[in-house]
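Recap from last week: sequence in, structure out.
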Amino acid sequence: MTIDPIELSARLIQCPSVTPQEAGALSLLSDMLEAEGFACTRVDRNGTPNLFARWGRKGAARSFGFNGHTDVVPVGSEADWSQPPFSGAIIDGVLWGRGATDMKTGVAAFAAAAIDFVRETPPDGAIILAITGDEEGPGRDGTRALLDWMAAEDEAMSVCLVGEPTCPETMGEMIKIGRRGSITFDIAAEGIQGHVAYPHRAKNPLHALVRLLDLLAAEPLDQGTAHFDPSSLQITTIDCANPATNVVPARATARLNIRFNDAHTGASLTRWIEGLIAQVGAQTGVTFTLDPDLSGESFFTPPGPFVDLVSGAVAAECGVSPVLSTSGGTSDARFVKDHCPVVEFGLVGKTMHQVDERIEVSQIITLKAIYHRILRSYFA
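Predicted structure tokens:
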């Protein structure tokens, strides 16, 4: 009897695992996988729940890895949902609930495919599931913790598939073979408070900060590269917390985020902004401080045997040749890429993070079939 990925998806959705709550989701997976011969270990760190599961011998020459998450974003107002957000209801061929696209269904589809595969044809190698409860949160103690633990325990994946929803509109249309990097900068400008009628006695930090931000946003960072869209700099907030109309503030702050391609690194972008800060600071006499927070560098998995294997499985099951893309936001693949080659493929993500998140159950069945075919091809 094969594992039903729809039933497993619904059961996972019924676990209200809003980051950082585990809510039974990883326990459900662990119990199911252990019953099928997977060695399961909880790798919790700093209160963040994580699960490592391996079928096969530790240190196997070939080890296929899957990375995913069971945590979900908050539901917002439950009154706005057509179905309760943790019901896992199936109505007219559609599965409803938080995590229906991002990405409890992806985890369920791979777990079901892996169990069926090792039952039918036990492979010469290992299958690893690295499942976190912290992908939607800070990301410090989730997949990073799993990879740290694996390194300490001499556990390794030869390749890894991440099950994020990758298809914009139709099943099978897109595979992610890379992602742009992401870095956030908090900038503070310190001047001298004073009366607006006597500007010579003050030093307005807002004027200097606005000048700096104009320089940062004036020109595109690049025109794109061979495999990436142009980098994007977006100013997200400017503030000085000044309720008065006749006071020059002493301090002003701003925040910006850069999604960058492989023409840049977090370090090179930091140096660029530091150079402009030095320039504006010298011109205005205002003192700046810069606090960068790098979420992840850009990465790219070149087309080759692993990418071809995933692409071929998608084409065989969906009847379309998937686009190889580096678009979109970040994912935990940004951590996995330091461990082994990584590719992302999953469902259509149109309703992820929305009220009334939902997915056609036919897509879940197709996704399991794709994952099963990938495993067959990899261990053939």
